[in-house]
């Protein structure tokens, strides 16, 4: 069942999004060679609670952390750890914020120190693909319009879109209907309606799109060892167009 949110509920989710955005902006300041994803985890957990919010994914289906921290060839759901990051690495930090029952979800990929032109291209294409998908999040469009816009652009840049992990509806729980793939056919899938709130979160690889799971049962990584990036926003479908509830402002 797809739930439609009222303006009040969307505004509450936007407040959760503002806290999430502030957290990402603080994390961006921390990213440098020598930092660990465990440092980011500890900061995030403490910061969210200082804002009267809680990390929604901590305890979700047994997941133990406030963040997912996916490094290099890890696609998603990487565990925070005490391994130091080095120049040339990339790290995706994904989190879900619960503020008085309202949820917001956003992931961002960060470059550590100096990265190669190939990695810069990966990050730029992934981020742009997110916004191309968001442009299609209009009342009356279909879910397939979002995925088609993302896939067409990414593959045109000789990169690949992960198939196994997709976006989703959000609120009142973390994973709601509808499913939001980042690939597909235009004009297909559920129709977008005013009041829907979804995540769009393309995961893009330098190599092939296929994923494999680590023994921990959570972390997915590329089969071929190529690097992977991800950017994600929480989006409200409104009569005036898509409203990004986790927008980071002019510095995005």
Features:
252 residues; alpha+beta; four-stranded antiparallel β-sheet; metal-binding; hydrolase; EC 3.4.11.18; Creatinase/aminopeptidase-like
- Give the helix proportion (percent range): 25-40%
Globular, elongated, flat, extended or rod-shaped: what is the shape? globular
What is the alpha-carbon Rg in Å? 17 Å
Total count of strands: 15
Number of helices: 4
Strand content: 25-35%
Helices and strands: which structural class?
Answer: alpha+beta
Order of helices and strands: HHEEEEEHHEEEEEEEEEE
Low-confidence stretches: none
- Cα(first) to Cα(last) distance is 33 Å
Average pLDDT, to the nearest integer?
97
Instruction: Tell me about the largest β-sheet.
Output: 4 strands, antiparallel
